Amino acid sequence: MSWTARSIPDQSGRTAVVTGANSGIGYVTARELARRGARVVLACRSEQRGALALDRLMSQVPEARAELRLLDLADLLSVRDFARTLPCERLDLLINNAGLMAVPYARTADGFEMQFGVNHLGHFALTGLLLERLLAAPGARVVTVASMAHVLSNIDMSDLGSERRYRPMAAYGASKTANLLFVRELAHRADNKGLDLTSTAAHPGYARTELQTKGPRLAGQPRRERITKLVTDAVGASADQGAAPVLYAATAPYVQSDSFYGPRILAVRGGPGSAWRAPWARNDIAAGQLWAASERLTGVTYRGL
Q1: Other CB atoms closer than 10 Å to residue 107's CB: what's the count?
Q2: What start and end residues bound the annotated signal peptide (predicted)?
């Protein structure tokens, strides 16, 4: 029998932060962790959408201990404010889920290309700022939601902001490669220090969420948006199915650091299992270089690592 959300062990006494928890994979992840007893913080950019998600979660899981806190990963000041005001002394789970896919060229508040800035740098900074609280929790895990789209593009250390040439889907693929290199370097650094911290990654396959249609909508391409929605509705898995690998990485026993999980069947559907990574997403030299660049760009240094 495939692993499902019903397989999640009891999460009572644990605290989880889920970024982008207002919809899709993030919402399902937050809901199921709350259903199993975790205290869940929904970290969302939009107060209105976050509040609607929280109301929905409480209606589906009346006994849930859940709260909304605002977090804009496209603004490092917001990331720092979120980490500074988070009211917990220890954090058991950090789910780096929020992301953008194939959007028109734009810059974050700090001047970074938007997809690299949100998908990688925002989460890099958030994890570093919450590291002390993660290390205070025995067996803490950081789960970063990547994508099989990482096979489309390696990162270019000489052009992390896609200044020379911007192609939306290639930039998305590069940001997902960055996610996997971050997971690898964090795992290695924690292991080298003998720290009780698991850094792992997961991808949802092809799920029916708003991620696919947001790019065409922002680009003002209604025809492409309609076609994308039709294809997604026809072949995509449900958000519940897409969240299964994320929940597995977050809660299943014996999950190892520097692992990557996704749907078993053609990396699109089915229960969670080990996922394949392109060689460039397993490059230790690139992982170290990206880490150093990320510290420099965000100003966040991982103390103790």
Answers
A1: 12
A2: none
pLDDT computed for residue 213 by the predictor: 47
Choose the weakest-confidence range: 14-23, 176-185, 235-244, 279-288: 235-244
What are the chain's domains?
7-205+242-295 (3.40.50.720)
Q: Which DSSP letter does residue 261 get?
A: E
Tell me how crowded residue 154 is: count the other CB atoms within 10 A of its CB.
19
- CA dist 75 and 84 (Å) reads 14
Digit-coded pLDDT (tens) for 68-103: 999 999 999 999 999 999 999 999 999 999 999 999
Place of tokens 């977090």: 71
pLDDT score recorded for residue 210: 57
32-61 burial: b if 16+ Cβ within 10 Å, else e: bbbbbbbbbbbbbbeeeebeebbeebeeeb
CA angle (23 as vertex; 90, 69 as ends), nearest 5: 40
pLDDT beyond 50 at 231: no
Question: Residue 224: CB partners within 8 Å, gap ≥ 6?
Answer: 216
Instruction: State the catalytic residues.
Output: 172
The single-letter DSSP state of residue 292 is H
Task: Report the sign of the C-alpha dihedral through residues 36, 38, 43, 49, in that order.
Answer: positive
Task: Say if residue 95 is exposed, middle or buried (CB neighbours under 10 Å; 0-12, 13-18, 19+).
Answer: buried
How high is the mean pLDDT of the chain? 91
